[in-house]
Design goal:
Elements: H1 2-25, H2 32-40, H3 54-63, H4 75-86, E1 104-108, H5 118-122, E2 128-129, E3 137-138, E4 158-162, H6 178-181
Antiparallel strand pairs: 1-4, 2-3
Helix pairs in contact: 2-3
């Protein structure tokens, strides 16, 4: 009887060690759904959704604390992708959400720029090149059009210019749902 008890104790310790090792080796960092949602979001870090960036917004969506229709840079295409991922119904932009704008890029009037670096500090994607008391310029391919650089500029030398629609930037528009066409 003592041998059986010792064997069972040894097996329990061995299985416990294997489970402990497995828990450390195969643990999941964070919520994988948050990463999938974050991959769909446009990564502009603009704050137009009322969250400080795309990752906090993705976390709020995964927790059920935010709707999927709060990202203007993602547009309706982003809402549709989020709805497909989460198995929810498509929700158009609401009244409390900013409407999507055409894709734009910031342009600095280089004759007016005083080189204050406030726009550089505000840019979440480092799309502005320049130095203190020197003229700044926008790296157009890096600019996400988030408009965060416009407000801090003390001389209002930054404007948002819509990108022209070319064959590379044109996208097919989704058809309207039959239910959306019906008016009560």
């Amino acid at each position: 009887m003592l041998i059986a008890l010792l064997v069972m104790s040894f097996i329990a310790l061995a299985l416990g060690a294997v489970l402990g090792f497995s828990a450390l080796k195969f643990r999941v960092e964070g919520n994988p759904l948050v990463d999938k949602i974050d991959a769909i979001l446009p990564q502009t870090q603009c704050g137009q959704c009322s969250f400080p960036g795309c990752k906090p917004y993705a976390t709020a969506i995964a927790a059920g604390e935010a709707d999927i229709n709060r990202c203007p840079p993602g547009g309706e295409e982003g809402i549709r992708k989020l709805a497909d991922l989460l198995g929810k119904e498509f929700i158009p932009f609401g009244e409390d959400t900013a409407a999507p704008k055409p894709k734009s890029v910031a342009v600095i009037d280089e004759n007016t720029c005083i080189g204050c670096t406030l726009c550089i500090q505000a840019c979440p994607v480092d799309a502005i090149a320049g130095a203190a008391k020197q003229m700044h310029t926008i790296i157009a391919v890096e600019c996400t059009g988030c408009e965060l650089c416009v407000a801090p500029c003390p001389v209002d030398c930054i404007t948002m210019v819509p990108l022209p629609q070319t064959l590379q930037t044109w996208k097919w528009q989704y058809p309207e749902d039959a239910q959306e066409k019906k008016a009560p």
